[in-house]
C-alpha cells in the first residue's frame, strides 16, 4: 500500500490541542495471523470521540499513547493474515468498536470494559487512510450502501438496532409506538429502523427546521421540548387511549429519564443508550417505575450477531442511513469535531477518505 495520513491523539486536552495529523505507512509485512489490512474509505464521528479527546472528569479513562481516534469506518480489505477466515482482499467491510470481545460467542454483549478498550481509545481507530486490525474488529458491510453511508452503522446504527430489536419477544413491530429524542445519530437511526418495520414514531427536537426533517423521515408527531416542558406527558397523549409509548430510546440519561418514565406505557421499555445530558441532573425518581411498571434497559452497542442482523435488515429493507449535510475530508477532521461540539449537525457527521 502507498503511504497515507492518520490522525493521532497526543493527549486528552481536547481535540483542538491533542489531535495531530501525521504520516501513516502500513505494509503487508506487519500482518499478524489474525490481522486484516483495510483501505479506509469513510469514517463517522460519535459524541464518544469528543469525550475521549478531553476525558472530562475522567469519565472515559486513558488512551493508548498516540492512538488513532474514531470507531466508525468502512473500507475495502487489502490483505489478510494466515488465520483469517471469511474475509479476503476486495471485501467491503465495516468496523466493530469492541474487537477485544471474545469471538467465540457471537451473542456476547460488550460492557464498559470492552468499550473503553475499543477502537479509537485503546486500539487504533478509523481516522486514517489505512488500518491494521484483528479480524474480530470488522464484518462484511451492506451491499446496498456506499462506504460513506455504511460508515454510520458502527456505533449509532448498532446501538439503535439493539434498542429496538435486542429483547427477544419484545422486538418493535408494525403498529408499535416509539419515542426518540433529538436528531443525533442513534435517534435518527432508531427512527429509520422503526419506520422501516411500520412502527409509529414520536420525536423531540428544539428546532422547527429539524422538526420538518424529522417528519420527512417518517415521524408521525414531533414535540418541541423547549416549548413543551412536560414532553413525556405530551408524547403519551399521542398514543391510542393515551396509554403511552411501547419504547423510549433515551439518549440523554439523567436529564431526560423523568420524561421518559412519563411517556412509557405500563410494561413498556426505556432503553438508555446515551449520556448527552448532564451527569448532575439531580435525583432520578426511579420509584416512578414502580407506579408505571416498565423495563429500564441499558444498551451499550450490541453483539456481533446483532451487527450481522443489522446488515441484513439494511439490505432487505433498503434502508439508507441519513447523514449530515456537510461531508468532511480527512484533512478537515478538526472542523468535523467542532461541528459536533457545537451541535450543528443532523444525524451522523461523516468523513470521506480518499486513497
UniProtKB/TrEMBL annotation:
<dbReference type="InterPro" id="IPR013154">
    <property type="entry name" value="ADH-like_N"/>
</dbReference>
<dbReference type="Pfam" id="PF08240">
    <property type="entry name" value="ADH_N"/>
</dbReference>
<feature type="domain" description="Enoyl reductase (ER)">
    <location>
        <begin position="16"/>
        <end position="351"/>
    </location>
</feature>
<dbReference type="InterPro" id="IPR036291">
    <property type="entry name" value="NAD(P)-bd_dom_sf"/>
</dbReference>
<dbReference type="InterPro" id="IPR052711">
    <property type="entry name" value="Zinc_ADH-like"/>
</dbReference>
<protein>
    <recommendedName>
        <fullName>Enoyl reductase (ER) domain-containing protein</fullName>
    </recommendedName>
</protein>
<dbReference type="InterPro" id="IPR013149">
    <property type="entry name" value="ADH-like_C"/>
</dbReference>
<dbReference type="InterPro" id="IPR020843">
    <property type="entry name" value="ER"/>
</dbReference>
<dbReference type="InterPro" id="IPR011032">
    <property type="entry name" value="GroES-like_sf"/>
</dbReference>
<dbReference type="Pfam" id="PF00107">
    <property type="entry name" value="ADH_zinc_N"/>
</dbReference>
Amino acid at each position: 500500500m502507498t503511504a497515507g495520513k492518520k490522525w493521532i491523539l497526543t493527549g486528552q486536552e481536547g481535540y483542538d490541542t491533542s489531535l495531530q495529523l501525521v504520516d501513516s505507512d502500513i505494509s503487508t509485512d506487519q500482518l499478524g495471523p489474525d490481522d486484516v489490512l483495510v483501505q479506509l474509505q469513510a469514517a463517522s464521528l460519535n459524541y464518544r470521540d469528543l469525550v475521549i479527546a478531553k476525558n472530562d472528569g475522567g469519565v472515559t479513562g486513558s488512551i493508548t499513547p498516540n492512538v488513532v481516534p474514531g470507531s466508525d469506518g468502512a473500507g475495502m480489505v487489502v490483505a489478510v493474515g494466515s488465520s483469517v477466515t471469511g474475509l479476503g482482499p476486495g471485501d467491503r467491510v465495516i468496523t466493530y468498536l469492541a474487537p477485544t470481545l471474545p469471538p467465540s460467542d457471537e451473542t456476547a454483549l460488550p460492557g464498559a470494559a470492552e468499550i473503553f478498550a475499543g477502537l479509537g481509545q485503546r486500539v487504533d481507530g478509523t481516522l486514517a487512510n489505512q488500518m491494521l486490525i484483528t479480524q474480530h474488529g470488522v464484518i462484511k458491510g451492506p451491499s446496498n450502501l456506499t462506504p460513506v453511508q455504511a460508515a454510520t452503522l458502527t456505533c449509532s446504527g448498532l446501538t439503535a438496532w439493539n434498542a429496538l430489536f435486542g429483547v427477544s419477544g419484545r422486538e418493535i413491530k408494525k403498529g408499535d409506538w416509539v419515542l426518540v429524542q433529538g436528531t443525533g445519530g442513534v435517534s435518527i437511526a432508531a427512527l429509520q429502523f422503526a419506520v422501516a418495520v411500520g412502527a409509529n414514531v414520536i420525536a423531540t427536537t428544539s428546532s422547527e427546521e429539524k422538526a420538518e426533517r424529522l417528519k420527512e423521515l417518517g415521524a408521525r408527531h414531533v414535540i418541541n421540548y423547549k416549548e413543551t416542558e412536560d414532553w413525556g406527558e405530551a408524547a403519551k397523549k399521542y398514543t391510542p387511549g393515551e396509554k403511552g409509548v411501547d419504547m423510549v430510546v433515551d439518549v440523554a440519561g439523567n436529564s431526560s429519564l423523568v420524561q421518559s418514565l412519563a411517556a412509557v406505557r405500563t410494561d413498556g421499555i426505556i432503553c438508555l443508550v446515551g449520556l448527552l445530558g448532564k451527569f448532575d441532573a439531580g435525583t432520578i425518581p426511579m420509584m416512578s417505575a414502580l407506579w408505571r411498571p416498565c423495563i429500564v434497559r441499558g444498551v451499550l452497542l450490541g453483539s456481533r450477531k446483532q451487527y450481522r442482523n443489522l446488515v441484513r435488515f439494511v439490505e432487505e429493507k433498503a434502508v439508507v442511513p441519513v447523514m449530515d449535510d456537510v461531508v468532511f475530508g480527512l484533512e478537515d477532521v478538526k472542523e468535523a469535531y467542532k461541528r459536533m461540539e457545537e451541535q450543528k449537525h443532523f444525524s451522523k457527521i461523516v468523513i470521506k477518505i480518499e486513497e
